[in-house]
Amino acid sequence: MQISTQIPRVFTVVWREYPKDLRREFPGIYDRAYEQMKKFRHVRDIMTPRVVTITEDKTIADAARAMGEKHIGSLVVEADAKPKGIVTEKDLISGILALRRDPAKSKVSEAMSWPLLTIPPDAPIKEAGKIMMKRKGRLGMMKEEKLIGIVSASDFIRSLPDVPETLVKVEDYITPEVVMVDDATLVADIAVTMGKKRIGSVLVSSGGKLKGIFTERDLLTTFLKEGKSFEAPAKGYASTTLIVAPAWISVYEATYIMADRHIRRLPLMEEDEMVGIITDRDLVEAYVK
After folding, report:
1. Rounded to an integer, what distance in angstroms lies between the CA atom of residue 32 and that of residue 108?
2. Where in the chain is the domain with CATH 3.10.580.10?
3. Running DSSP on this structure, what letter comes out for residue 81?
């Protein structure tokens, strides 16, 4: 069945809310760009200092509940009171759910990534971004053998709007393939698709028309955290608040929108048709190149 990618009117089309020329509308932001770049020179300036930990003998269900309650996407795994590795939303999906394993009977040690990638807090931001893109993971900030923070792609998003490298166009970094599923698809099958394809979201359709988006955070907070059955259809669980933007915007503008709306992925449009999606990791890649 051919699925229409035309965005229904009920969705939020953000380019009608934001000025087309953000640089002219908000000149102060651009005038301060180089000063801000000096301010955010090191990873310590953008890191998240609150580090939530878990031990490797805990279950995946325990990890999911902790992430859901704290509204975070990862936990540092400790062994002998020292950081050993990290377990993320994507690890839970790819390492456990995609293999149809029971989260309540699977241990954190079976899904975690290790060793934990670390970097000194005074390392340049661009260096941290390059390591993240190469190793595809979050970074721990170590000072005197003590973990003092974590840096993720979301941390970059909160600071990138003020650096001049982000003026390039998003069209060079978008992912053109957007995975869509029907709203009758079981959440268990969506988890398998997301895990195998290593993606953080799928778009949900009904009757051949786009209806919403289902993300790894929805999977974590609605199903893993609450212990709901994965044998439920996606209908009713996908968010219908789909924020989209035009494909001609700059990386700066995409970052501004994503930071302002607190989202990690932004579908892109040409005319009224979807042409791809850009994620927080795509924006970090654009910055470090």
Report:
1. 44
2. 12-28+166-288, 43-160
3. T
> DSSP of 177-226, one letter per residue?
---EEETTSBHHHHHHHHHHHT-SEEEEEETTEEEEEEEHHHIIIIIITT
Rounded CA-CA distance 62/175 in Å is 33
- Burial (CB count within 10 angstroms: exposed 0-12, middle 13-18, buried 19+), residue 207: exposed
CB 157 within 8 A of CB 283: yes
Alpha carbon separation from 165 to 158, 176, 284 (Å, rounded):
14, 23, 10
- The three-state secondary structure class of 54 is strand
Respond yes or no on whether the N-terminal peptide bond of residue 8 is cis (omega within 30° of 0).
Answer: no
CATH superfamily of 43-160: CBS-domain (3.10.580.10)
Q: Which of 200, 221, 217 is nearest to 65 (CA)?
A: 221
| Radius of gyration for the chain, computed over Cα atoms and rounded to the nearest angstrom | 19
| pLDDT digit string, tens, across residues 152-209 | 888 887 776 555 666 677 788 888 888 889 999 999 999 999 988 888 899 888 887 8
> Comparing C-alpha atoms, which of 235, 229, 232, 200 is closest to residue 216?
200
Instruction: Give the type of residue at 282.
Output: D
In the DSSP assignment, the letter for residue 175 is: B
Question: Do 244 and 267 contact (CB within 8 A), yes or no?
Answer: yes
Tell me the pTM.
0.72
User: Do the strands 146-151 and 265-270 form a parallel or antiparallel pair, or are they unpaired?
Assistant: unpaired
Q: Give the CATH class of 12-28+166-288.
A: alpha beta
Please give the structure tokens belonging to residue 288. 């470090």
- Name the one residue in this structure whose structure tokens are 């990534």: 113
Amino acid at 143: K
Q: Strand ranges (DSSP E) for 89-170?
A: 118-119, 139-143, 146-151
